[in-house]
Amino acid sequence: MALNQKFFNLPFHKQLKGMAIGLLVAGVALGCSPTPTQTVEPEADTSAPTAPQPNTAVQPTAPNSDVAQSPATTDRQALIDQLLSTRQCQGCDLRGARLEAADLSGVDLSNAILIDADLERANLSNANLSGADLTSADLENANLTGANLNGVNFTNADLEDANLTNADVTGANFTGADLDGVIGLNR
After folding, report:
1. What is d(CA 147, CA 89) in angstroms, rounded to the nearest whole number?
2. Could you tell me the pLDDT band of residue 21, with boundaries at 50, 70 and 90?
3. Model-level pTM?
């Protein structure tokens, strides 16, 4: 007896189970994953009043956000929140932080790690960044007027069109940095 004949001789519920498993295996093999498309809520019992239930609906996430954040991401966000509220975060590890167009005027980020940070168009006027590591950071069009940049590592940073008027760049390292259009940098 051929395999397909055996299949059709099975009870109908076993045939359905076999087809469902076959579809699932085929879907996984093709890179698909089963996802529920609709949930069915049980009918409410109207015979007795009940206490309000907490909202358990899944909340939408912001675009480009991770479903589960790593501890490093959560910690970095806590440090960013601290920076924005207290205006200081000395020695903080803000590696890869996204601070585009942020008002960071007068903040104290001395000895902070800002490797690969996005500070494009950020206002860092009169900020203290002494000893900070800004390797490969994006500071394009950033305002660093009057900032303390003493000993800052700008290796491979993008400082295109940044304003460094009256900034203290004593001992700063600009190796490989993009300095096109920088204003106020006395080399």
Report:
1. 15
2. low
3. 0.62
